[in-house]
């Protein structure tokens, strides 16, 4: 297998960007404005909008993250654009000023980009050659560039040798990457065991001050385990990772035998092991182990986890509504029983799903408009509701930030385009 000649391709879909949610990038998810933010403004868009400068630009990928107040989109030509909060340089434009509409990443103009991942204040970019570039907040080493320099403003290649990378994911302050041979690597903050190296990385600097041993370059995850009823631990064998997703402080991974593993912070049942304790190494989720019980896709929100089973059912565990009950192990989302799930977006507390011909979303108050229901409509929902504002628009893919949703809308036919044109255009 000639890995040197490897060239990866982005998804074969293409469409127009639609946006719903909060646009006050300095304030979303914060109690107070930071001192650097001058006259922060931006309203909540309660329904999907076109973005002012994106006319005629076709995209194949839209990306944000459950802790992120910034976004990355990738054009059909493999060019990356970013916008949103930029306190730490997470947009990769070489400065730390917020950007209100998507702008091209000029330093990557000669590189074909196939994917991206957004942490709270950092970003990873995956190229068609299986290389990873990182930028933004790096105080926990989450960029994997070999140091803990506070912020990196330009895309910088992460430090590693080895097979090409095929999958990237970001937690709030850590990162996960998977290579073409199914090996998983992590770097950044080791808190709660989220890096999967059997430690939470804490140590005492002095008698009353704690600090963390951060991983500043990608380190391979060496062990996957399963626990039986008596809590006896066995290593899981022959693990080839296909996919990984990260919440704020936890992770979920899927292997090529359709097995699901979770690790990191265990609060509110988000690991699905029916107990809320932290796991320091990837632990098999028993629910998805066995014939016809496996999973085919996994997703993570801030404090919750989702998986689509090989039979097409959507399962949820963890907690989105802090006033409600925590779900300690995977439970089917009954409202979506029988729907073909195409794409899933996880915001801080809301979930947005493209399924069949529809977009469905739900999430507790407060929201910023990420549910997309439209003006003068409910601002939150405890159960899955169809997003009527997109009733005539087919959405290929969705991705959510902390309080916003990106929709990749099909624009193949004149009818598609006409329906998109009926939506308002947001010009900040």
Key descriptive features of the protein:
428 residues, mainly beta, four-stranded antiparallel beta sheet, 1 helix, 33 strands
Strands of the widest sheet, in order across it, are 31-32-1-2-33
Question: How many DSSP E strands?
Answer: 33
Percent of residues in beta strands? 35-45%
Q: How far apart, in Å, are the first and last alpha carbons? A: 49 Å
Q: Rough shape?
A: globular
What's a concise summary of this model?
Helices cover 2% and strands 43% of the residues.
Walkthrough of the structure:
- The protein is mainly beta.
- It is built from 1 helix and 33 strands.
- The chain has one helix at 414-421, and strands spanning 15-22, 44-51, 59-63, 70-75, 80-84, 99-104, 113-118, 122-127, 132-137, 151-157, 165-170, 174-179, 184-188, 202-206, 209-212, 215-220, 225-227, 233-235, 241-246, 250-255, 260-264, 279-284, 295-300, 304-309, 314-318, 327-332, 341-346, 351-355, 358-363, 381-386, 395-400, 404-410, 425-426.
- Strands 31-32-1-2-33 form a 5-stranded mixed sheet. A 4-stranded antiparallel sheet has the order 3-4-5-6, with no helix packed on it. Strands 7-8-9-10 form a 4-stranded antiparallel sheet, with no helix packed on it.
- The longest helix is centred in the C-terminal third of the chain and has 8 residues, at 414-421.
- The chain is globular and about 60 Å long.
- The chain starts with 14 loop residues before the first strand and ends with a strand.
């Amino acid at each position: 297998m000639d890995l040197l000649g490897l060239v990866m391709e982005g998804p074969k879909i293409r469409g127009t960007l639609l946006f719903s949610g909060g646009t006050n990038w300095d304030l979303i998810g914060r109690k107070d404005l930071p001192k650097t933010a001058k006259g922060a403004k931006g309203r909540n868009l309660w329904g999907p909008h076109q973005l002012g400068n994106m006319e005629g630009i076709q995209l194949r990928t839209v990306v944000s993250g459950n802790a992120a107040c910034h976004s990355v989109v990738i054009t059909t030509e493999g060019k990356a654009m970013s916008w949103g909060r930029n306190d730490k340089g997470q947009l990769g434009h070489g400065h730390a000023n917020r950007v209100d509409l998507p702008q091209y990443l000029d330093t990557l103009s000669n590189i074909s980009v196939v994917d991206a991942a957004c942490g709270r204040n950092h970003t990873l970019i995956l190229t068609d050659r299986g290389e990873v570039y990182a930028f933004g907040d790096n105080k926990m080493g989450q960029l994997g560039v070999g140091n803990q320099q506070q912020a990196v403003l330009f895309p910088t290649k992460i430090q590693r040798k080895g097979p090409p990378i095929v999958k990237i994911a970001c937690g709030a302050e850590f990162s996960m990457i998977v290579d073409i041979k199914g090996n998983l690597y992590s770097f950044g903050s080791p808190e709660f065991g989220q890096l999967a190296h059997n430690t939470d990385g804490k140590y005492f600097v002095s008698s009353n001050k704690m600090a963390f041993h951060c991983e500043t370059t990608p380190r391979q995850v060496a062990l996957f385990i399963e626990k039986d009823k008596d809590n006896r631990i066995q290593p899981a064998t022959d693990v080839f990772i296909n996919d990984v997703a990260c919440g704020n402080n936890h992770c979920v991974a899927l292997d090529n035998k359709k097995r699901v593993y979770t690790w990191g912070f265990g609060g509110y049942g988000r690991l699905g092991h029916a107990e809320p304790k932290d796991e320091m190494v990837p632990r098999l989720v028993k629910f998805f182990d066995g014939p016809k019980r496996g999973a085919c896709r996994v997703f993570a929100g801030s404090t919750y986890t989702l998986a689509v089973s090989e039979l097409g059912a959507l399962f949820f565990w963890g907690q989105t509504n802090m006033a409600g009950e925590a779900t300690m192990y995977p439970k089917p989302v009954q409202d979506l029983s029988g729907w073909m799930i195409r794409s899933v977006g996880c915001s801080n507390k809301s979930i947005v799903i493209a399924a069949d011909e529809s977009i469905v979303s739900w999430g507790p108050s407060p929201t910023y408009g990420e549910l997309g229901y439209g003006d003068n409509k409910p601002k939150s929902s405890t159960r899955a509701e169809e997003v009527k504002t997109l009733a005539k628009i087919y959405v290929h893919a969705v991705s959510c930030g902390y309080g916003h949703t990106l929709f990749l809308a099909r624009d193949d036919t004149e009818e598609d385009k006409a329906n998109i044109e009926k939506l308002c255009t947001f010009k900040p």
